[in-house]
Design brief:
Layout (H helix, E strand, L loop, with lengths): L3 E4 L1 H8 L6 H13 L3 E5 H14 L2 H13 L3 E4 L3 H13 L7 H13 L3 E3 L4 H4 L3 E3 L1
Parallel strand pairs: 1-2, 1-4, 2-3, 4-5
Helix pairs in contact: 1-2, 1-3, 3-4, 5-6
């Protein structure tokens, strides 16, 4: 397929936390994406969110291991949210006050829109609400 897929916090977490309800599904989907040679993209905010979640729910050791792996993994492009992206994300967050989006979600939506990404590897229904294709 060779398309770009946005990797969200839940996908990172489920792939690492063996006791997560989505672990097996996340691992199978990751393997499929790797076989398809899809390009992976995420944001620094997603990396921070996943690290915090791993530290709280698994261990600090796993969180550090994740951080080290992601930083040196050239299969994942990390978009660093600059002031412009952040402001647009905050504006989106304020616009959709009837939704329970986080600011990080909204910044992810902005990055996906700007990068022309339609697919998200996530277990978060919010991406579907914003009309992105949700996988698995």
């Amino acid at each position: 397929m060779n398309e770009t897929v946005f990797i969200d916090t839940g996908a990172w977490f489920a792939g690492i936390a063996k006791n997560d309800q989505h672990h097996d599904e996340a691992m199978k989907h990751r393997d499929r994406l790797l076989k398809q040679k899809d390009r992976f993209i995420t944001t620094n905010l997603i990396i921070h969110e996943a690290t915090m979640l791993l530290e709280r729910k698994v261990s600090k050791k796993e969180a550090i291991k994740f951080l080290k792996a992601v930083v040196k993994d050239h299969l994942v492009d990390i978009v660093h949210a600059d002031e412009d992206v952040e402001q647009e994300g905050v504006a989106l967050y304020q616009k959709y006050k009837d939704q329970d989006f986080s600011v990080t979600d909204c910044i992810s939506f902005v990055v996906m829109k700007r990068e022309g990404i339609k697919r998200a590897f996530t277990f978060d229904k919010h991406f579907k609400t914003m009309r992105f294709s949700v996988e698995p």
